Amino acid sequence: MFEWKDVYSVKISEIDSQHKQLFKIGENLATAIKISDTETDHYDEIVRLINELKSYTVYHFQHEESIMRKIGYANYENHKAEHDAFIEKISELQKQDIYINQKNAMMNILTFILDWISKHILKSDMAYTNQFKENGIF
Q1: pLDDT digits (tens, 9 = 90+) for 35-91
Q2: How many CB atoms lie within 10 A of CB 83?
Q3: Are 86 and 57 in contact (CB under 8 A)?
Q4: What do you get for the CA distance between the two ends of the chain, in Å?
Q5: Per-residue confidence at 15, pLDDT binned at 50, 70, 90?
Q6: Which DSSP string corresponds to 63-111?
Q7: 102-116 and 76-95 helices cross at what angle (nearest 10)?
Q8: pLDDT tens per residue, range 102-114
Q9: Considering the entire predicted model, what is its pTM?
Q10: What span, in angstroms and rounded, lies between the C-alpha atoms of 22 and 17?
Q11: Could you give the CA distance from residue 29 to residue 128 in angstroms, rounded to a whole number?
Q12: Would you give the DSSP letter of residue 11?
């Protein structure tokens, strides 16, 4: 489900490595969903994965945004707004009653991550590739 393919590559090795880590977190969540059942408590694992997702994306977004500011990326404000919306959504997911409906909470997070990959990485992130490379970011 979260298999890295070349189509996801922005052709900037450090950012690709960070995106691969986000895929790994998503795959860990998908695995947790597969092995979960209604009688097993996965609350701690779900909370850990959400926290890991949030902290890693904050790190990743700060890195991307610092490059964007450094090179004067034309679409910086819109891109940053997408990042901010992602963090806000993860914060909302952290506030939901995960303990009562664990599988539903994991599915919500998984759906959100898959949607993010298709909308943000494949579109918004791909849009900066040429400008980054023109400014010597590899």
Answers
A1: 766 567 777 887 888 899 999 999 999 999 999 999 999 999 999 999 999 999 999
A2: 19
A3: yes
A4: 27
A5: very high
A6: HHHHHHHHHT-TTHHHHHHHHHHHHHHHHHHHHS-TTTSHHHHHHHHHH
A7: 170
A8: 777 778 888 888 9
A9: 0.88
A10: 9
A11: 28
A12: S
DSSP type of residue 120: I
Distance CA 123, CA 31 (A): 26
Phi, then psi, of 72 in degrees rounded to 5: 70, 45
Question: Hey, what are 15's tokens?
Answer: 């950012």
DSSP run (H or E) holding 127: helix 126-134
Alpha carbon of 49 to those of 26, 109, 111: distances in Å? Answer: 9, 10, 14
